[in-house]
Design a protein that fits this description.
single chain; alpha+beta; Phosphatase 2c, domain 1; 2 domains; five-stranded antiparallel β-sheet; 10 helices
């Protein structure tokens, strides 16, 4: 075989091998793209939605997460718990598939811990650290996580865990920076971080706004590699009017960061979480009953006694009983067909000029605001079916009624404003 033939044969085999490798690479890219897409969808699915955040009485909470790649390593969550509201914000080192999977693990672990009992920051961070440490080693990954847990209860926020600074814009225009460096240790680096865990308790008054963020904000860089930094972050938030909703703080900050980086590519995930208290308390009395009609009527008596002890006028208590009875009976009848087991929670929050009531149940989706208002013209006796009159009466008596539903529960928020005239209690 001459030299030309040999070279031709070699080129032919090389072309076949290149084609095979290209096809293999294409298959691998398709597979990896599919895996990233699934993980990205999972991440978006577990983020708290606006509807869930709006359902938290007395608080205005907003959050935003924007991944630098198809899958981000940032994490945030907001969970309403019987011990208060627990907010988490964290940042897994790096981004991409491994970081996104670890962020999902953390979200699942926190919600599992909350479902299993009381909130305890030290216990939570110790357990979370072991979860991240063990899974990182199992994955043969060097990923770690900075994480702050923020526990809101009775007008105070308890901060624990090491992450970025927590910023608080006071209603008087002042701004506070709370460093978290001494409140914890990055999760996943050491087997035991218990000696490093600490707490800081900060009051949150009416109109005060708390903002937490990941370093995707402060480390955002322009074309000249200048970082946005904490000082610009503080200046941006200070420009927001004190009466603005929390979403306004996030929009302002993200807009200023975008203008700063201009055409530069986003190099890291960006997450911002904001909370404000409107001045209404979420503390009060809570009753839990089984989804049985007999339990409903017993709970109504207990509610009346608690409201009487709180000094709620008799006329308002009577109106509230009518509304609660109608709503809870409907909940049992429509939310738990065939007598299926379940639980109804009643939260009573008496305040100086209003009583806030929350009804939370784990039954089937049932929106009392959905049925149309009944036709009230004509003689009731001439109609075969009244249908909807009870719900209409409840909507008429209550000063405000809002319904939301998350993945598992119906949540009904009711407000009853005190009558203008004095009533004996």
């Amino acid at each position: 075989m001459n030299r030309v033939a040999v070279e031709g044969a070699i080129r032919g085999r090389a072309q076949v091998e290149i084609k095979r490798l290209n096809e293999q690479l294409t298959r691998e890219n398709v597979r990896m793209s599919s895996e990233l897409e699934v993980t990205q969808r999972l991440q978006k699915m577990i983020l708290p939605c606006d509807e869930d955040l709006r359902a938290i009485a007395g608080l205005d909470i907003s959050g935003h997460m924007e991944a630098a790649t198809e899958v981000g390593g940032d994490y945030f969550d907001v969970v309403a718990h019987h011990d208060g509201i627990v907010l988490g914000i964290g940042d897994v080192t790096g981004h991409g598939l491994e970081s996104g999977v670890l962020a999902i693990m953390v979200q699942t672990a926190i919600r599992t811990l909350l479902a299993s009992g009381r909130y305890e920051s030290r216990k939570f961070l110790e357990v979370l650290n072991r979860v991240v440490y063990d899974n990182s080693h199992r994955m043969k990954s060097d990923r770690s996580l900075t994480l702050s847990l923020l526990h809101y209860q009775d007008r105070f926020v308890t901060i624990s865990g090491q992450h970025e600074e927590i910023l608080i814009m006071r209603s008087d225009g002042s701004l506070e920076r709370h460093d978290t460096i001494d409140l914890g240790f990055p999760l996943g680096l050491e087997r035991d971080i218990s000696p490093f865990i600490a707490e800081a308790r900060v009051p949150l008054g009416p109109g005060d706004v708390m903002v937490a963020y990941t370093d995707g904000i402060t480390e955002a860089s322009d074309d000249e590699q200048r970082m946005y930094g904490i000082e610009r972050t503080v200046e941006s938030l200070a420009q927001v009017p004190p009466t603005a909703p929390t979403a306004g703080y996030i929009e302002r900050l993200l807009g200023d960061v975008d203008r700063f980086v201009a055409e530069a590519a986003q190099a890291d995930d960006i997450t911002v979480l904001a909370l404000t208290w409107h001045g209404t308390t979420v503390s009060g009395s809570e009753l839990r009953i089984a989804s049985q009609l007999a339990d409903v009527f017993g709970a109504l008596d207990r509610c009346d006694n608690l409201l009487q002890e709180a000094g709620v006028p008799a006329a308002l208590r009577s109106d509230m009983r009518l509304v609660l009875e109608e709503l809870m009976v409907n909940t049992v009848e429509y939310g738990y067909p065939d007598g299926r087991a379940g639980q109804i929670r009643i939260l009573l929050q008496p305040q100086p000029d209003v009583v806030v009531v929350e009804l939370i149940d784990d039954g089937l989706a049932f929106d009392p605001l959905h049925p149309p208002e009944p036709d009230l013209t004509g003689d009731l006796a001439d109609r075969e079916q009244v249908g909807g009159l009870g719900i209409h009466l409840a909507r008429t008596i209550a000063s405000e009624m809002r319904y939301t539903r998350n993945a598992h529960d119906n949540h009904l928020l009711l407000r009853f404003i005190y009558p203008n005239q004095d009533s004996s209690s």
